[in-house]
Amino acid sequence: MSFFVVSLLFSFFIVSCSVSINPIRTKIIQQEKTKTEKQAFYEIFKKQRERFNELDKEYKAMGRFFNLIETEYYRYVSPEEMEEVIYEGINAMLKKLDRYSCLRNVDSFVDAGSAEKGSQIKTKFFENSKIGYIFLESFLLIGDEDLSEKFAEELKKMKGLSMRGLIVDLRNNPGGYVTLVRPMCEEFLLKDVLITRTNKFKGLIKEDFRSRENNLCKYPIIILVNKRTASAAELFAGVLQYHKVAKLMGQNTYGKGTLLRLASIGKKEAFFVFGECFLPSGESVEGKGLKPDIELNEEITNSDKIIELAVKELQKQISAK
Known about the structure:
- This protein is α/β, with parallel strands linked by helices.
- The protein has eight helices and eleven strands.
- Helix 1 crosses helix 2 (79-97).
- It starts with a helix and ends with a helix.
């Protein structure tokens, strides 16, 4: 066999090998990539599993508690009395966790008047000064009412009346669902502005929530707050204060920056702290609340006098433009 033929066959062998090896090499790279992704997922899963194992221990402990109650008391007390004993035991365990976790009646967060009134929003329009007023009772989901949609509707009506300034009254507002804060804040913010950062399950899940709408607020806003303004109400007020869309008037707020999860237990509902939320600045209101731009004493803050002062402050800001 000539040297030329041998060389040609050798070249053909090399090319054949490279053609067959390249897919294998590509497959190996893909496998390595998949392996890395699987490893990253496993690390997250491992952390979750450890957390769930901790919860599982707590649930088993509660189970043993129930068994003990049933064994010791079922012969001596009525089912109603035994149920109350169990609820008391659960509530005591929950309260050991932190200052928020507890067991409550299903309707404990709903003011008795809310359901009768049919809405958590009350509005008023001061025709002479063209200033709107919106009172928000809470940030809860009550009945079929969509609070964020109702809020947007009322704003639209007032804008149609050539509104020049707005008062949002959050006094005695206990807060509620943080998910309602985002669309309500979006009524006053440009697109992609940071609203809040949340930290859930001890840092396992971290999320940023930004505005999805593009609304430029063209009028001044005063938000009324007091010592009982808490949770989601503080977040709403804090976001607009941080972005210089609104000024706060009244007293320092309550100081609740935690996220609560609700779980039904028989006729009761258990509230667990499962995370925390932060202002756009990165700070939490937990334990310190929000400091008003315009501080007033308790008597004025909790009276109708504060509304008069808010109207005057807005008129001053409108005149200064």
